Amino acid sequence: MDEANAALAGVTDLVERVRHGAVTLQVAAEALAADGVVLRDPERGLIDFAGASSDGRPLWLCWVVGEPVVAFWHWPDDGFAGRQPISAVP
Q1: Which pTM was predicted?
Q2: N or C, which terminus of the chain has less Cβ within 10 Å?
Q3: Sign of the dihedral defined by the CA atoms of residues 81, 86, 87, 90, in that order
Q4: What 3-state class would DSSP assign to 71?
Q5: pLDDT tens-digit readout, 8-17
Q6: What angle do CA 86, 88, 90 make, to 5 degrees?
Q7: Whole-angstrom Cα distance, residue 70 to residue 36?
Q8: Domains of the chain, residue spans
């Protein structure tokens, strides 16, 4: 029975750590959103910033953790797959 209780205590601790991590991530995502940053994929570290083309059409500036600068953009309907270099913004 002691082994079962020890295992249960370990699982309970793990669940609490996961719950705490989820709350921390939610708070961080809300803080980013307050600054106009959208967390798209927390595992990859993918975020988007609202922007506009020269004629005023909305677009997203796109950045992934590890990229040295924000160097890509995409139309709202295209998502990550539609990323294009900043130099190509119309």
Answers
A1: 0.72
A2: N
A3: positive
A4: coil
A5: 878 888 899 9
A6: 110
A7: 15
A8: 1-35, 37-90
Question: Each residue of 15-69: pLDDT tens digit?
Answer: 999 999 899 988 988 998 999 999 999 889 999 999 999 999 999 999 999 999 9
SS (H, E, C) 17-55: HHHHHHHHHHHHHHHHHHCCEEEEECCCCEEEEEEECCC
Q: Provide the sign of the torsion angle of the four alpha carbons 61, 64, 65, 68, taken in this order.
A: negative
Q: Are 33 and 42 in contact (CB under 8 A)?
A: no
One-letter amino acid identity for 13?
A: D
**Two tokens, residue 31:** 């803080």
